[in-house]
Amino acid sequence: MSKDVSKDLETDTVNDTVEPGVDDAGVADKGTEATKPTEATEPTEATESTEATEATEVTETSAVDESTEAVEHPSGTAKRSIRWSRVVAFGLLPALALVLALGAGYLKWRDNTVRTSEVAAKTSVQAAKDSTVALLSYTPDKVEQQLGDARNLLTGEFRDSYTSLTNDVVIPGAKQKQISAVASVPAAASVSANPSEAVVLVFVNQTVTVGGTAPTDTASSVRVTLEKVGDRWLISKFDPV
């Protein structure tokens, strides 16, 4: 009996000795497990800090890139503004200057043309009046000289036809029948005129005396065409209207 009791006591003693070890191991395991989260937390915080730093650097890099792109590539509005300024500077302004120069040249030419036409109209009307009086006026004693001088106021085919008429009909008749004629021009108007040619409408009154008879008066209108020969207006056509 005493041996059995001794064995039981030894067994209990061994169990008591082992259990604290088991408890220590359990405590140790728990301590280890408690320590592990702390160790895992520290790398996580370091990783998060690194990622935050990298994200900040990426953001700053992106901002710099965007700023660089904004500088290198201005907006479409700026591009359009630059293009329009070039168009205005190198396209519209020279074209406008050319148009203004052409307009000024045309106005000057037009003004000169109008002035020249006015001068031509005035001088041609006076020439038509004077020449018409000379063509239709003569006396029996001076008919050859008077009509010969009038012939110098003509040109072209009309000069030839007038010369034939006066030499064949007017001069012999004036001498034979003592015919005299006096012409006057109460009115004349320019129909058209340019520096080289003019047309004048002439109203003519002519008084003709044959011998000792009473004079007769006639009124007529003539369309006179003149050409500028040198500095003189000469009659090229003399058409009764």
Automatic annotation (TrEMBL):
<protein>
    <recommendedName>
        <fullName>Mce associated membrane protein</fullName>
    </recommendedName>
</protein>
<feature type="compositionally biased region" description="Basic and acidic residues">
    <location>
        <begin position="1"/>
        <end position="10"/>
    </location>
</feature>
<keyword id="KW-0812">Transmembrane</keyword>
<feature type="transmembrane region" description="Helical">
    <location>
        <begin position="87"/>
        <end position="107"/>
    </location>
</feature>
<dbReference type="GO" id="GO:0016020">
    <property type="term" value="C:membrane"/>
</dbReference>
<feature type="region of interest" description="Disordered">
    <location>
        <begin position="1"/>
        <end position="75"/>
    </location>
</feature>
<feature type="compositionally biased region" description="Low complexity">
    <location>
        <begin position="34"/>
        <end position="65"/>
    </location>
</feature>
<keyword id="KW-1133">Transmembrane helix</keyword>
<keyword id="KW-0472">Membrane</keyword>
